[in-house]
Amino acid sequence: MSALLDIRIITQRQLRLLTRVPEVLIFSTIQPVMFVLLFRFVFGGSIDTGQPGGYVQLLMPGIFVQTVAFTLAGTASGLAEDLKKGLIDRFRSLPISPSALVVGRTLGDSMLNIVVLVVMALAGLAVGWRPSSGITKILIGFLFLFLFGYALSWVGIYVGLSVSDARVVQNVGFMVTFPLTFLSNAFAPTTGMPRLLQYFAEWNPVSTMVAGCRELFGLQNEFGATAGSFPSENPLLMSIVYMGLIMLIFIPLSVRKYKNASN
Amino acid sequence: MKSVIAEDLVKTYRDGEVRALDHLSLDVEEGTVLGVLGPNGAGKTTTVRILATLLKPDSGRAMVGGIDVIKHPDKVRQIIGLSGQYAAVDEILTGYDNLVMFGELYHLGKKQAVLRANELLERFSLTESAKRPIKTYSGGMRRRLDLAASLIVKPKVLFLDEPTTGLDPRGRLEMWGVIEDLVKGGTTLLLTTQYLEEADQLADEIAVIDHGKVIARGTSDVLKKQVGGERLEIVVEAAHIEKTQAIVSKVSGNKSSVDAGIRMVSAPVSTGATALIETLRELDAAGIHPLDVGLKRPSLDDVFLSLTGHIAEEKEEAK
Fold first, then answer.
1. Interface ipTM
2. What is the domain extent for residue B284?
3. Is A9 in Cβ contact with B107 (below 8 Å)?
4. Does B243 share its domain with B109?
5. d(CA A111, CA A259)
6. Which residue of A85, A113, A227, B111 lies most exposed, with the fewest beta carbons within 10 A?
7. pTM for the full model?
């Protein structure tokens, strides 16, 4: 019971940080909206998707996934900052369970994604995105996105505690998320990639998430499912497996790392 | 009763390459203040981190409030407060938000946490800045808030790790005042510092540590006596330094030293005021008029020098 209370207090702290530093919320929202607009208008005209409604239908799930993937960097750099300033020492000297502290943080950081996803969806609608599968499936799609961000924030905890400097963490975060999101079906079909990369791209959890969301948002052509590999045939199942694996590995790792954390 | 006991603590970093604690033992009597004094890298922070359950020693034993720190860290956390150089508060949140959050994390309940926060803000003269983010606070205010956060549940044992490092003189004096008040209330306190006068001012007993072990302990008077009584200091004009040196050496029976920059001749003396009068007579007879004379009790700096053979030097703090 008291663990739940602790989780709530830490979650509240993460949310309060957002209201105290509105810039974080503003820029976390502006950047993905900017991506929506740039990709929609720069590539949208020249990529032929063979899809009614054009490129933006395929683009939006890709950008959603890319954006929630950046939760990893956000959690990691926030945690590294707290560690450097000694706040983690203070938390760890309190009579509360270390898992409550990390669970609260991952939850708080993931909440930010709800706001960001809503704003992006609105921006998408404004530039022609029209999901056609009905409200239930659309909501399930967003639930998948939220959970993916949540799973990755556990990786963020581990990275944040392993790398000592917040700026380095930010870079590491980008170094992981950029290749992962671009070596996927998120922005362009994987068919144009060299054979080896195609395999990587199809097994990439970002691709299964994107393909899964495309399916849930009502698209026929999922843009890149070509080699007939298992993940591209069963993107939602594979996404669930990936999220489960990530949490199974990184929750215990991160909690243990946190218990022994020191600046 | 001993509130804090550390026995034979050993802690090495980087696979044994850096030995932060080398069989360190100390204890603190209930209701008293122990000042742990030493230069950067002597092992002060490591000691505090082990006692405050943040770090496990490689070997050795530690008890706080009668509870084994290594076996029951969760129980120890309920009775300690930690504040200092590295333990901190949230800079983005306000002082009030911080204290309420920590109060809630101690499971006081929202209402009690708010009451306690206001009480502590009042007590540390922070009420006016309660609703401002910590990052707008001065160094002294920040330390006071940090200290307040460690007092939320009235800890049985308080650890303050270099509470005034980096503060300006005014901030330091304020902090000393706050800590003195606390100690009057009977809190058991272990305080680390690299300022000799701070240990002198605040601590009942002082443990001097160097290279990860305690090299001396006692009250500041006892430590000062270990260095050997008082020191005679005479300032004369440059031309008279040599003659004065001879006289001081003769009277004191000790080798005198000269600080040419301030033209001061000094030597340890065992007979105090008598030596002073005798020296002045001889100087007068030699036609030398001293510019300044004095009898100085040794500072803790002198203690450190005579204990370690070197001035309190800094080495890279192992973290």
1. 0.85
2. 230-296
3. no
4. no
5. 24
6. B111
7. 0.81
